[in-house]
Amino acid sequence: MMMTARRLTGCLGLFLIAFASQAAKPIDNDGDGYRAEQDCDDNNAAVWQLNSCGECAVEPIAGCGVDNPHASLGWTDYPSACQNCHDGGEGGFQYQQMFGSTHYQWTGETPDMVNQGGTLQGKLTNAVNSYCINIEGDWPVCGSCHAGRGIKPGEGDTVANVDCLVCHNADYALNRTRLPDGSMGPTAGTDAATLDSYVQNIAPPTRTNCLKCHAFAGGGDGVKRGDLSSALMANGDPHFDVHMNVSGANLQCQDCHQFIDHRVIGKGSDLRPTDDIVRGAEITCASATCHQGMDSGTGHASSGRRGEPDRHVGRVACQSCHIPTYAKDLGDPAHVPTEIHRDWQHHHDGTPADGVSGPGHPHTDKAANLTPWLRFWNRKSDNYLLGDQAVLDPETGRYPTSRPMGGINDGMLIPFKYKTALQPMTVADQRMIALNTFEYLKGSGDAVASTESGLVNMGYPANEPYEWIETDTFQMINHGVNPATDAADCSQCHESNLDLANDSMLDSMGYRLKGPKLEVCAQCHDGGKNIPRTWDKMHNHVSKGTTGIGCAFCHDVARPERGLCSPCDSSCSAEYVDNVPYPHQCD
Known about the structure:
The chain is of the alpha+beta class. It is 20% helix and 11% strand. β3 and β4 (263-264) form a beta hairpin.
């Protein structure tokens, strides 16, 4: 009888453990990425929070309890009717807000840049990259994505140049183009009813509005970012992007990139201005409404998931595990590769850019389903500016146009796109040349003529000697998040067996042994013990003794947040060092 009771008690215990484990798992009935306790309607994937009217519903286009105030407007009322209401009128000061924003000015303050601090920087003036290099001489093409009606900022523009519709009507955004008179507007021949509909149907920006420009940056769909393409406008595959997914969360860009007074937060490591100085540039995945507590160090385990990520969240960004690939091609015709190399000496078809075949795009190499580079980033960047002296990076053997700053003891591990380009640089003073892309793309198509025009634009003589160099850039990857079930496993970073004879990916990040193996291991071992051959067994050292052996015993790595013993702390190190002390560099 006692044996039976014990068996029943044991079964009951197992049942309770299983029940508790099951109960701990997050509930998300509609699959929108928000747990039931956070979701105001967990049976409707299109809704997860109260709208501005205090209702658990999608945001009404015309406002709370209000008929469409734009219904009586026609195309000829644009933009005068907008200004009458939104330039200090009944609607507020939205024109002034937008006019001063980075989205309009294309320059701004740069607290995150380490070069030329205190100067206004941006794509309108001094920014140089490994795509279209610089805007000098090519406002007609590069400016086609500007949120204005055609005039270049600083060249006689006023608030009337702000183009409200490019952000507030998706159909207009898709139809907008550069017109023969230099202005931006709907394509010629657009019928009157369609034109009227643009001003009558005003709405908050959708992904389509944003992606009309941001997906096509750099000269084509998906070319520049690698994690943004037009496929996200109507994406229905959670494996392509679990957030921007019409069959799931269906997030709009501003759900994360939140605007206040037309100033936005969030930017890539290669972007210079910070639009909202008060709020800064960083977006956090874990907040009161999204992934709450997942950055706490216990969030993954306490929600019924794997516990290993919890000890990484202090140093490894969410994207590093949840975006194992970018420029995804999952078989949908809308999925496109991203550019990984650009060559201005040849056209897209491989012919020499000598003017014989006329204008065209430069030659590009593209690829899909790429694995990001992982680097530590402290949120500071050194992004090349027009007039900077170009300096060869010995690590890559190329001239950088964008470098995320930081190191193994300074910053978070972040995924990046890595991309190269062949572009011109002056010989005498090593300045990258703002090749005149308008001459190249719309004029002669001659790389020499385009370079000489660029030299003149920069104040050099046309015959200034120059050479062709290879540049490179790192660009932060933030979009294309996988479902939680498809996060990267440990093998993305950790090899199954330790190989001390060759550098691994982790070694290249700075995790290699701080000295020869025999010297490092001799601190605690006399050579008579076999060294563990797998990373997980090796890292059982952190559980040894009273406090655990700190990373700096074996690596030039400091992780003070883990509370482990430092080799420089005499109060605990003697517990572990009982053989041959290592000459650690202690402050």
